[in-house]
Amino acid sequence: MSSIDQLSINTIRVLAADMVQAANSGHPGAPMGCAPMAHVLFTRFIKANPANSGWFNRDRFVLSNGHGCALQYTLLHLLGYKLTMDDLRNFRQLDAKTPGHPENTHTDGVEVTTGPLGQGIANAVGMAIAERHLAATFNRPGFPVVDNTTFAIVGDGCLQEGVASEASSLAGHLQLGNLVVLYDSNGIQIDGSTALGFTEDVLERFAAYGWHTLSVDDGDNDLAALTRAVQEAQAEKSRPTIIKVATTIGFGAAKAGTEGVHGAPLGAESLAAVKSLFGFSPSASFTVPDDVYKQYRARAAEGAQAEQQWNALMAKYAEAHPELHAELTRRIAGQLPSG
C-alpha cells in the first residue's frame, strides 16, 4: 500500500469518527472498517464527475448499509461534491446536508435514499436493470452511449433481509454483469457476533443465484487484492459479482472487532488514541491533509474528462442516429412524449 493511499484511508477513518463524536450519535464502526474498499472504489474505479453529479452515464454507487453514511459523506467531500467541511461537522443535525442515513433529496452525489437494510442492494439491482434496458434500446455499433456500472457496499444486515434475497435472485437470472457488490463481512451486528443468528455461507447462496463470487481475506490492508477483485468483477460481463471482504469493524479503535463500535461514538479518549495511532494530532478535529485532497481531486478531474468524452460521443451519435438521440435525450431530461 502506498503512503498516500494509507494516509487517505486513515483520513477517512478519522473524519468519520470525528463526525459521529461531534454528533454524539451514529455508527463509526462500518466507515472505519470499509474505508479501504471505499477508497479503492472511488479512486480507481467509479466513473463520475463531482462537478456535475447528474451526468447521465456516470457509474452509480449505493451504500446499502446506510447507517454507515459518515463514510459516504466523507468520500463525497473529498471528491469535491457540494458538501463542505461544515456540512460534515453538522452530521445528523436538523436540516443538515448530512442526515443520519443518506437522503437522495438532501445530499449532492447520493444516488438513492438508504436506511432499511436490504433495500439498498435491491435499489442497486434496479439501477443495473435500468442500465441494461437502456443499453439494449439505444446502443448501436460504435456508440456505447449507455455503459455505466452500478457499485454497492452492503453489510451482513442487508444480506439477512428477504428483499435482498429476492432482488439478488433476479439479478442472477437477468445476468447483470454491470453490477458489482462489495460485502463488508465484519462478523458483528448490534447484539454481538453475527453467528448469533447468521451462519450461512453467503457466497454459496449467491453462487446458487447465478452470481460470480470472489473474496478478499484482508480487507483492512490488502489494496492490491481489493483492486484485483474489482477488476475481475468488471471483466465478468455475463453475471453480477459479489466480493466478500473480510474487515475489522472500527479498525484502529480500542473496541475494534466488537459491537461496541457499531452504533455509538468512540468516546474522546478512544478517538484521541485512534488519531495518534494513525499519525494525526489527537487534539485536532476535522482535518484533511493537502495530499489527500490532491489525490481525490485528481480522480474528480478524470471524471470530468470522462463526461467530456461522453458528450463528444453523444454529438456523433446525434448525427448517426438522430431519432434515437432525440428519444434518449428526452428521457434523460425527464420530459413526457409529445401528446
Automatic annotation (TrEMBL):
Q: What is this protein called?
A: Transketolase
Keywords from the named record = Transferase
- Report the domain of life of the source organism: Eukaryota
Reported EC number(s) for this entry are 2.2.1.1
Has keyword Transferase?
yes
